[in-house]
Amino acid sequence: MAINNKSFSLESIVRPNILALKPYRCARDDYSSGILLDANENSFGMVLPDKSSKENGEQEGESLSSLTLKIENLNRYPDPNQVNIKERLVEFRKVPNINYIFLGVGSDECIDLIIRIFCIPGKDKILITPPTYGMYSVCANINDVNIIKVNLDVEDGKFQLKTDEILKVIKEQENIKIIFLCSPGNPTGTALSHESIKIILEDENYNGVVVIDEAYIDFVEEKNKNSSLVKWVTKYPNLIVMQTLSKSFGLAGIRLGISIANPNIIQLMNNTKAPYNISALTSQVAYTALSEQNILNMKSIKQQIRSEHTKLLSSIKNISGIGKILGGNDANFILVQILDKNENISNDRAYNVYKELAENHGIVVRYRGNEIGCEGCLRITVGTPKENEILLKKLSESLA
Ligand SMILES: Cc1ncc(COP(=O)(O)O)c(C=O)c1O
Predict the structure, then answer these.
(1) So where are the chain's domains?
(2) Ligand 1 pocket residue status of 138, Cβ below 6 Å
(3) 36, 55, 83, 380: which sits with the fewest CB atoms below 10 Å from its CB?
(4) Ligand 1 atom, smallest distance to 109 CA
(5) Rounded distance, CA 368 to CA 288, Å?
(6) For domain 13-51+295-399, which CATH number applies: 3.30.565.10, 3.40.50.150, 3.40.50.300, 3.90.1150.10?
(7) Which of 240, 238, 215, 214 is nearest to 228 (CA)?
(8) Any ligand 1 atom below 6 A from CB of 213
């Protein structure tokens, strides 16, 4: 039987901003199985082959099956500094040394840490540019930090920064400590112009950090001039670049996020994190994933995803009931408008199609109609050829 302590009242002791939180909801809360095209994971799987290529009679490569042999010593805490993974990242991402790298439990941990480091609850603010990734706001709310919004230029699905407006807000508003920019954007699939990011980084009215979330950076075409900004971290002490193994490396399940910045910022992040935040299991998989061979695997899977992306776009355009394709081609998903029977953009229809795909056909996509500039939109992760074929068929049927 519960013991009733009359002086205990849960609601009266919880921080008011926490009490006011609404649980973060995503499509996976409602639908968790079937063809999962809702969370921009890597539909082609992990970059780690099931068997080492040696077992296939070829040259040796690091694989999942070789890993299982190393899953021992779990009675010991993992390396608090994860030096081995950082050394591989230094090579791969061309970072000067490991002091420029922080590892977190997904980028989501990095977002929370950066807010906790720079923002005083109830006083400081972050600036975001909707439509954008939802966790910047969720973490700000958890930390009782205000959110200032300067929408992207959504006209014609451009989804670029309104730089002048951002500069104006920075000048007028006190206590903005962090600007979160997502490039390539989620849900926009568009890489932001480096020119506009440079203007913000160099603005003399701004005394805060600029975070560039590059979760989808490996999907950007090599010739695109707005690819990774890691190369700028030695130049700008106020720049933090976030990356993750959740997308191009197909390892969302291990939760490994990366922040790259000036060592002074990285030191603050290390001082703030829990001592052993990266588990030994995650660490082994991440280290293996970053071998030369597996980076080549990642690049080859990325090419397949890019090619499926192109095919998916060209087929989806021809389905009646599909409006414009918004945003760019810089990530592993597409953003498409759904029209009603009168050819008007329709949130209701988009939501019904989302539900019908999930409930009748086991295909889970993400409804994004309530985001700024995304009216009537579904965001669809590029699947395998088979998954895309089923998606196109069922989407045509739903819209017929
Ligand atoms: C833009 C963006 N940043 C970060 C994340 C989360 O990354 P992680 O899995 O490393 O926490 C996502 C996941 O969808 C994302 O879309």
Answers:
(1) 13-51+295-399, 64-293
(2) no
(3) 83
(4) 11
(5) 35
(6) 3.90.1150.10
(7) 214
(8) yes
**CATH entry, 64-293, from 3.65.10.10, 3.90.960.10, 3.40.640.10, 3.40.50.11540:** 3.40.640.10
Residue 126 CA to residue 334 CA, distance in Å, equals 28
Q: Compute the distance between CA of residue 361 and CA of residue 356 in angstroms, rounded to an integer.
A: 7
- Pull the structure tokens for residue 199: 């203007």
133 ligand 1 Cβ < 6 A: yes
- 253 φ, ψ (degrees, to nearest 5): -70, -25
For a mutational test of ligand 1's pocket, the pick from 108, 212, 214, 241, i.e. the residue with the most ligand atoms closer than 8 A to its C-beta, is 108
Task: Please provide the DSSP assignment of 85-105 as one string.
Answer: HHHHHHHHHT-S-GGGEEEES
Distance 107 CA to ligand 1 centre (A): 6
